[in-house]
Amino acid sequence: MKSKIKDLLKLFFTMLYISAFTFGGGFVIINFMKRKFVDELHWIDEEEMLDITAMAQSAPGAIAVNAAVLVGWKVAGALGMIVSVIATILPPLVILSVVSLIYDKFASNQYVALVLQGMQAGVAAVILDVVFSLGSNVLKRNETLNIIIFVLSFVAALFLKLNVVYIILLAAAAGIAKEIISKRKERRSS
Questions:
Q1: Burial of 9 per CB tally in 10 Å (0-12, 13-18, 19+)
Q2: What confidence tens digit (pLDDT) does each residue in 158-187 have?
Q3: Pick from 74, 76, 55, 77: which is nearest to 66 by CA?
Q4: What one-character-per-residue DSSP string does 137-167 give?
Q5: How far apart are CA 159 and CA 157, in angstroms?
């Protein structure tokens, strides 16, 4: 029992820390979650983190909250999910509540505008880090269909300007088709 409470507290404070000091959206928080839960704590492996990222992005709602639900569930079940989500939404809730009280002065302040411009460059760099980190994991598996989906997704998004929802749905359909074909081959060979 003490071990479970200890794990829940560690999960809570880890997610609270990540959420409080992560600016730039869902992909940035995913990167921090990967570093903490995969690389440092070893609670989740890289394959699971890729799956969590794909599901968090594919589900409706904020990627950060979706990922918190999945990480919490993986680490400590239903209670872990609740703890993880509360820790993830608390910092933005507090910060935005305070900002809303002084929004008029905050929005027109030139120093705040400069800070936000600087943060945009930093956030772009972190998002690129996520792309390279998760993308290299897909390429390391050396599965032809996954590499094709990976390349075609970039082409569809960057050059064809295809809506990301369609890209996700098409990639999911390809993954389902691959699994169905694989299962049929297994049945035929056995």
A1: exposed
A2: 898 888 888 888 888 888 888 898 888 888
A3: 55
A4: HHHHTT-HHHHHHHHHHHHHHHTS---HHHH
A5: 6
Q: Are 113 and 41 in contact (CB under 8 A)?
A: no
pTM value is 0.62
State the sign of the Cα–Cα–Cα–Cα dihedral 120, 126, 130, 132.
positive
Cα–Cα distances (Å) from 27 to 67, 104, 160, in that order, read 10, 29, 22
- Residues with Cβ within 8 Å of 27's Cβ and at least 6 positions away in sequence, in order, are 63, 126, 127, 130, 131
Q: Which letter does DSSP use for residue 21 in this model?
A: T
Q: Can you read off the two tokens belonging to residue 9?
A: 């507290």
